[in-house]
Amino acid sequence: MTSGHPDSEYGSTRPLRWLLVVVTVIAVLSVGWPAVSRAVSDNQPLAAGQPLTIGPDSAHSATFAPGQNWVVRSAETNPVLHWSLSDGPVDVTVVYVMVISPSQLGRLWPGLQSGLRLGDASARLGRPAGFTSAAGSKGLTGTLTANGRAGQAAIFPGPDGTFAVEIVSVAPVQDGAAARVAAALVARSLRFPAAAQ
Amino acid sequence: MTAASAPASPTPTTQANWAVRWVRITAALLCVVGAGLLAWAFHRALAVYPAATVLAAVLQLPLAIVGWWLLRLARPLRAPARTWSAAAMIWGATAATGCALSANQGLTGLWAKGTGVAFAGNWSAALTAPLNEELLKVAGVVLIVLAAPRVIRGPLDGMIYGALAGLGFQVMENFTYALNNIPLTGSTNPGEAVVISTIVRGLTSLGSHWAMTAAAGAGVGYLAARGLRDGAPRAAACLAAAMAMHLLFDAPAPGAAIVLKVAINFVVVLVFYLKLQRRYRARARASLARHVAAGAVPAVEAPALLTRSSRRRRQRLVPPGPVRDEIVSRQLADLAAIEREAAD
Q: Most buried residue among A61, A147, A187, B77 by CB atoms closer than 10 A?
């Protein structure tokens, strides 16, 4: 491409030089960015009890509070859709899901089960039980097991039935109790601002 | 596609060229790597939501088929080479998309770590995708220039191949977005989630990846036609325009603004295309006139040469057989000479 006409490239090694440029650009983007990102610390501390918000707007949002010494994994977090938090060995995710129609609210629990299997084929949810947050929001909670991991999951439908918030807390089996405590902490603190208005 | 509109294929000289062969092998490997990255990222969807995954793929077929047909029809005189059109689309759907998964994950992570999750939540897509994805998509057009040096002769060729690479990317991205929409809607109705995503993405398809990479691809065409020194400023401007279109598309804005964004991107690429196409046709007509004046093209054949339909009509004046084959061969040879002069 340095010659002014493609025909003059025939038989030259210029294509290899340009090929090197192209491959370098592709490598910098697809290997370089992730490498630099991994080199930068991802765990940003959170103040205990500091309310975090999830959702696209005030009418479709929820707030929850993390526990003491929790950190946010910012690279995996988008405050509209997905918070990724950790407390030592415990991983806590809080996810905003849009509900296609209110008639599907009853399918959120089996839906969460299949969604978890996307990440881990061995993930299984236990039978759900009712749970009420400190602010009075009603949801479901149940145990979560997977190969070598254990924890707790919960679902809270939003006040207008158009969205829901899922909480999933997992840890190595020996820390399963800590994972269940973390899930309960977030679930208890969950509040829907639209419900309070 | 008729024989008269058959693409110019690389000569045996090209195929024998070892440097060109290295380019082709590398490009094919990058497509395999990209496809592998995509398969790794989404293979669980096929296991958990098999019907919805098949549905998501099937629903992209109309866009792929109609886009392929329209974009190849957009090239004046005759359709671009079928092999390299497919190569551009496959590049966009595999190498570019697969590498973009990794690149975007890395850069969005950096934005989140550097600027905080609130800012990154709004802006990381708009500040990440234009850089990563436009470079990865247009890399396929560059590789076609290197792998088949006579296929892209100027900005209009680059625009068509860029649009095809962008279309491949768009189809694969739509497919992955449809799968991602299943958990985003609570996995309560995977089929409906896929349909909703496909409709929403379909509504924005007029101003999406094909349009952005068409602009960037035109720049590669300028480089191919004019060389680095003369072509680089225009190539840089085209790439910057593609990135700006992508930034506009991804920038946070109220939901209804997407209509305006799509319209702007579509009008930008349409005006650019019409400008290039008008100049290309004018150069082709001038070239044909020179060939007729020099006696290289019979005056009686000239009016039937520059459009697909007129060539077909001319061919049908004689019954199938050696005479028609001779006419087709002569038209192809004349077109090749005209295309060389009309490219830029």
A: A187
